[in-house]
Amino acid sequence: MPHKQPPRRQSLNVGRGARKRDEDSGTDVGEGTDEWAQSKATVKPPDQLDLTDAELREEFTRILTANNPHAPQNIVRYSFKEGTYKPIGFVDQLAVHFSQVGNLIPKDSDEGRRQHYRDELVAGSQESAKVMMSETEMLEEEEEPKEAEAGSQTDVPAAEAAEKVVEEELMTPKQPKERKLTNKFNFSERASQTFNNPLRDRECQMEPPPRTNFSATANQWEIYDAYVEELEKQEKTKEKEKTKTPVAKKMGKMATRKMTSMESQSDDITKVTQAAKIVERMVNQNTYDDVAQDFKYYEDAADEYRDQEGTLLPLWKFQNDKAKHLAVTALCWNPKYNDLFAVGHGSYDFMKQSRGMLLLYSMKNPSFPEYIFSSDSGIMCLDMHVAHPYLVVVGHYDGNVAIYNLKKPHAQPSFRSSAKSGKHTDPVWQVRWQKDDMNNNLNFFSVSSDGRIVSWTLVKSELVHTDVIKLKMEGSTTEGLEGLQIHTVGCGTAFDFHKEIDYLFLVGTEEGKIYKCSKSYSSQFLDTYDAHNMAVDAVSWNPYHTKVFMSCSSDWTVKIWDHTVKTPMFIYDLNSAVGDVAWAPYSSTVFAAVTTNGRTHVFDLSINKYEAICNQPVVAKKKNKTTHVKFNPIYPIIIVGDDRGHITCLKLSPNLRKMPKEKKGQEVQKGPAVEIAKLDKLLNLVREVKTKK
């Protein structure tokens, strides 16, 4: 701020000036006046500067700053980047003159409110005490005159003395009691210290292990010789295993288990197959953790607001690059491992027949199949044995049947039919394992477009066939040369065996008819149903009711039958060719169907017997066609295959698997009898309607 320097006072000799003026004026000044003038004179310092008027009027500007005058201004630091010392641009100018630690509490804080509330309580209690004291004093004052009037005159002086004492007490001001303030620094701290054990060091010295120095040189010849020796060892072990008896083989296996790890081992990838498979499953479960959580716990909450509708939640999608251009022709769950299922790949196009594949997937590893088998002809059907879940039988497009053993990692089937063993001449559309025969030999049935239903028996190491029945169209005999009668052969497309009656089974044909057949009669049918106008794609017995079966066809319809009646009980038109149908394992009235327009339909006859309660597209593209569907025997999921080789796993919402509601005081009845009664009730309603018509 500008500061004007005050002009310095000039040292003037007042006595001399006064004397000169007096002398000039002619007046005489005495000694007293001289002394007064000297007392008023200013003392001039010896180093006083003599300034002119211009210098005295000059202004000097000074600026006040917040910089600390004692702060160093020449601090330098070494710069490793430039290799020189450089001054620091910023210097801390803060100077603390005074600091004090306080214990103030804001009024708006919780502690401040609590203290204020306590102060109000104390003040209120003091005021109430004062009021009580004043009331008691007033009562005493009122009672004293009454007592004085009633008393004798001799007591007047004593009463007057007492009144004077009371008046003096009232006149004297009462000092309020001092409130004891809480000392916030008055606290106690307790601590204890345990006894520390003295530290001890224990040391021991072992004998050093023996050391040996080894050195060698490796060249191409030594590496080659090592590989040759390893190959010779493997060939010798293979020759020994071929010549060994079964007992010797078992002994050899036990001996190999007891071999020490010091023996030389070949770098074979098969030795870490099991460990690699476990690690792969762990990685996939972490990758698809959200899908696994949905599979285990998710339930569609929106079903509570839907009266008679449900949804399908997509979970995993299974696909393999090798089967990319092959259609899914068959699906089957493993009867022992509920997370494992088999998929058959082939082609339904007669002009585009190529190879086939058998893949087995697990829900624990959706990224890659557990087993892969390839074949020269397309696989059109398959089935897994109930008692031996490692045996898979397949039917090929070229008419052959084959059995794959999952315990043997060979790519080729363990058993296969041939032209000599009586293979079919047309595609095999369905195969099904049956109970063992009288000699405990494995056997299965197959149906083909050549009109033959064949029973195959596994005897020792070959397949033996027996023609059970030949499909013949009724009323289609023609006379040939020399009066021979030629029968037109029916083309079988699907069949299913009764769940309780072993000899009874149904056969669907390309002509749209369904034949009820018996294993004991090969020349005639037990009954014939004019079921559909086009080929029958699937027939299936109800898992609970012994009289009910279901069929689907390319004529867009799904029909439910009572095998004792030749007319269908229920008919459903799905507006597209129906590829496959499947009954639900948990209910006698629930079934699913897939159509060629890529949709999946789920019905529950007990809820709605007129239309599906779920109609949902499954495939990603409209051009894709769904071909097969299967229910899981345990979990509420289904798998659906399409013509692009993809298998989609979907979870049923709660409305699609409704169970009987619990009633107060009554236990919910469950079991096959309840399911049979539920379906019987529906069938009786249909029968009553038909009889009225």
Give a structural overview:
With 693 residues, the protein is of the alpha+beta class. The protein is built from ten helices and 34 strands. It has a four-stranded antiparallel sheet, covered by helices on one side. A four-stranded antiparallel sheet has the order 6-7-8-9, with no helix packed on it. A four-stranded antiparallel sheet has the order 10-11-12-13, with no helix packed on it. A hairpin with an 8-residue loop joins β22 (513-518) and β23. Mean pLDDT is 79; it is low at 1-33 and 257-266.
Find the count of extended strands (DSSP E, 2+ residues).
Answer: 34
Give the helix tally: 10
Shape: elongated
State the helicity in percent bands.
10-25%
What's the main sheet like?
4 strands, antiparallel
Separation of the first and last Cα atoms: 118 Å
Strand order of the largest sheet: 5-34-33-32
Mean pLDDT figure = 79
What would a concise description of this structure say?
This protein is 24% helix and 26% strand. By secondary structure, it is an alpha+beta fold.
